[in-house]
């Protein structure tokens, strides 16, 4: 992409980076869980975050969407500091889609209803428009025929795909996934991963915490290995997963591969 000559370095950065995390710290009481994280995610990039349990991956994602308030550093979204007290958190949240390990669907609503609710409540869309957008996104995840089903009538993999459709229905600029397949029976993992793969192919900007090393290797533009609240190593998946530099990365991969 080329920029006009008058573009400042700041403009260039904010055009290119959807999220910038700067010296992020997070403590719970006396325990420092994130010890200074720096990273940026470019528009259209897929970043996979790997690392042992307890290394701070979920906390990092939860700080990016402000489910947790950082204790130090800042998170910039489209160049704006969303950790600033004056920033409207709901504004940022409506532009981020989050998919959790547990799908967190409303059991009393249908698949369509789950995908419509926040569109109406947060974005102020009419019921008709919300329904149309929801239907389109259920089709996108291969569930166009199941809009009237309640979560209890769907498999775990289908429920997770509804959760993805629900997030997509908000037209997010960035999708955050926290171990989206970890709660699924093994035979249901593939369908969810292939939906995520097609989103990546469409150019969606994605940050994905995952233990699916084959997915990370195939789909990620960049892999980040975290351990003990810091980024130990990051780079192209062929390097970080295929030929890691750091001993800690090597021993983690030996345990999971
Ligand atoms: P990961 O997702 O990599 O497994 P987490 O970010 O969930 O790691 O957790 C990192 C560390 O922070 C763990 O030791 C966990 O016990 C601790 N932690 C996470 N959330 C809280 C919380 N709300 N209160 C206290 N400790 C927490
Ligand atoms: Mg976690």
TrEMBL record:
Domain ABC transporter: 19-253
KW Membrane (keyword) present: yes
Keyword Transport belongs to the record: yes
Compartments where found: Cell membrane
Main location: membrane
Family to which this protein belongs: Belongs to the ABC transporter superfamily.
Protein's name in the database: Peptide ABC transporter ATP-binding protein
Residues of the full protein shown: 1 to 257 of 304
